[in-house]
Specification:
Blueprint (H helix, E strand, L loop, with lengths): L5 H11 L3 H8 L3 H9 L6 H12 L7
Helix pairs in contact: 2-3
């Protein structure tokens, strides 16, 4: 998966119908990290990008 923008990350999380905290738990990061991604202050690393690609292709249950 290419580096998604803040709006894409938020849209993916909202598509799955989960809060920042739940999304963070599934990705093994802190909720503040998800908030920073969605604000454009940080970007996911390679491991997280693979998880995000799996979520995008299937659903959150693919990694949870």
């Amino acid at each position: 998966m290419r580096q998604p923008g803040p709006a894409e990350l938020r849209a993916l999380r909202e598509r799955e119908g989960v809060s920042e905290a739940v999304f963070a738990r599934c990705l093994d990061v802190l909720p503040q990290t998800v908030i920073a991604w969605e604000a454009g202050l940080a970007q996911p690393g390679p491991k997280t990008l693979r998880l995000l690609a799996a979520i995008d292709a299937r659903s959150l249950s693919a990694v949870a």
